[in-house]
Design goal:
The chain is mainly beta and 324 residues long. It has one domain: Immunoglobulin-like, CATH 2.60.40. The chain is built from three helices and 20 strands. Strands 7, 8, 9, 11, 13, 14 and 16 form a seven-stranded mixed beta sheet that branches. The longest helix has 10 residues. The chain starts with a helix and ends in an 8-residue tail after the last strand. It binds copper (II) ion. The site of copper (II) ion has 4 residues, from strand 3.
């Protein structure tokens, strides 16, 4: 599979912090679209806001400085009402920001993007008998019956006896994942290190055996495969769980088209090869986090609620988004 994102699927953008980023979106779809830079701090005119919709046949120039910390960000369309479908149809990929902290980490562990530092875009889709995408969302979104990794079904990655970095992105429409790495004979999931989240690198690695990833969310992890023997097949797996604990009552009963949420399923197989020499250790410190403001000056109430007339929809402070 190597860097699956580069062979199949969308291009991965990698930029250093401080870079003057520029990209032209030329819309050759038959409908309006935008490109939203998920997680990055950019001027709203540059952020793919629905009010800056790009009509078919036109070009929009995105230009902004990269000011964020190193981390795993992503880009996808954000037109009003069609964001989810355009992402489902394939318009989504990574934007990786690099800085001194990230370079130090890659040097310490001898990580190479695409070989041992691997972005994994998780998306569930449904295909009809002709292999065409099926998309039939309800108000809660859409869950497909096949989980693709970097648009690849049944993916297998050949791995060596060393530490790997996986940058996990949940690019699914509505599916939550409870992720862990499972060896076939072990009675519990393998330990790994969580080293980054939506906000970039953590200050220190955190040990974990599983993590929840909701749509749009990223997790940056290190997995130590030094003790695997040739021929071992591990799997990145979705462990079973009870989605939403059925909160929301009867309105939520429709949420599972295709596979119900929380069903166990293998996502990516890792096939271990021969032993290699690798003498590195996970660094104790990854980054220095910017200090939080000690004295918040502003308190804003956000009341989240669910309305059922005329159709179910979520509200913030009693209102929903309107384009006008
Ligand atoms: Cu987004």
């Amino acid at each position: 599979m190597g860097l699956p994102g580069r062979r199949r699927g969308q291009p991965i953008i990698s930029v250093p912090r401080g870079f003057a980023f520029q990209a032209d979106l030329t819309n050759r779809l038959g409908e309006v679209t935008t490109t939203h830079w998920h997680g990055l701090q950019v001027d709203w005119r540059m952020d793919g806001h629905p009010q800056r919709a790009v009509p078919p046949g036109t070009t929009y120039r995105y230009r902004f400085p990269i000011t964020d910390r190193a981390g795993t960000y992503w880009y996808h369309p954000h037109p009003h009402g069609n964001t989810a479908r355009q992402v489902y149809q394939g318009l989504a990929s990574f934007l990786l920001v690099d800085d001194e902290d990230d370079r130090a980490l890659r040097e310490a562990l001898d990580l190479t993007l695409g070989e041992t530092d691997i972005p994994l875009l998780l998306q569930d889709k449904t295909f009809d008998t002709d292999g065409q995408l099926v998309y039939e969302p309800d108000w809660m979104g859409y869950q497909g019956d096949t989980v693709l990794v970097n648009l690849t079904p049944n993916p297998v990655l050949d791995v060596a006896s060393r530490i790997y970095r996986f940058r996990l992105l949940n690019g699914s429409n509505a599916r939550l994942y409870r992720l862990s790495f499972v060896a076939p004979t072990a009675h519990e999931p393998m330990p790994f290190h969580l080293i980054g989240t939506d906000g970039g690198l953590l200050d220190r690695p955190q040990r974990a055996r599983e993590l929840f990833l909701s749509p749009g969310e990223r997790a940056d992890v290190l997995l130590d495969l030094r003790h695997q023997s040739a021929g071992d097949v591990l799997a990145l797996t979705n462990l079973p769980f009870d989605p939403m604990h059925h909160e929301g009552g009867p309105a939520m009963e429709h949420m599972s088209h295709g596979m119900p949420g929380g069903q166990p399923l293998p996502i990516l197989k890792l096939r271990a090869g021969g032993q290699i020499r690798y003498e590195r250790a996970v660094p104790a410190t990854l980054s220095r986090l910017p200090p939080l403001p000690q004295d918040p000056r502003l308190t804003r109430p956000f009341v989240l609620s669910l309305a059922n007339d005329p159709a179910p929809r979520w509200l913030i402070n009693g209102v929903t988004y309107a384009l006008e």
